[in-house]
Amino acid sequence: QVQLVESGGGLVQAGGSLRLSCAVTGRTFSIYLVGWFRQAPGKEREFVAFVNWSGVSTAYGSVKGRFAASRDSAKDAVYLQMDNLRPEDTAIYYCAAKKPNSGVYDYWGQGTQVTVSS
Fold first, then answer.
1. Around Cβ 73, how many Cβ atoms within 10 Å?
2. pLDDT tens for residues 75-97?
3. What is the structure's pLDDT at 67?
4. What is the DSSP letter of 18?
5. What is the C-alpha to C-alpha distance for residues 118 and 114, in angstroms, rounded to an integer?
6. Which of 29, 32, 36 is nearest to 1 (CA)?
7. Angle at CA 69, nearest 5°, toward 78 and 94?
8. Is residue 95 within 8 Å of residue 47, measured between CB atoms?
9. How many CB atoms are closer than 10 A to CB 68?
């Protein structure tokens, strides 16, 4: 089993920055990559970014160029650096881990709230 715990959420003004952390524990050797998702009230869950265990990362959609995922292999931690935040980035952010050859994300964290004020 793998456990994921997010932290680092909070309230920030538009234009500010936050760094979310995702602590990965348990059978971390079974993980291929960690993705970041978000869900705003009344909206569907949205895929934001991922980083694989080789350190390759990509961000998608409206956060591309503002958000970046990274990994600290020594700490088994994954991060989401969020810059130039906008009110529309307000959501609960989740990290999730995927095993090799898995078509779905196998493990999920509990989420951390990010609120961006205008």
1. 11
2. 889 999 999 999 999 999 999 99
3. 97
4. E
5. 13
6. 29
7. 65
8. no
9. 18
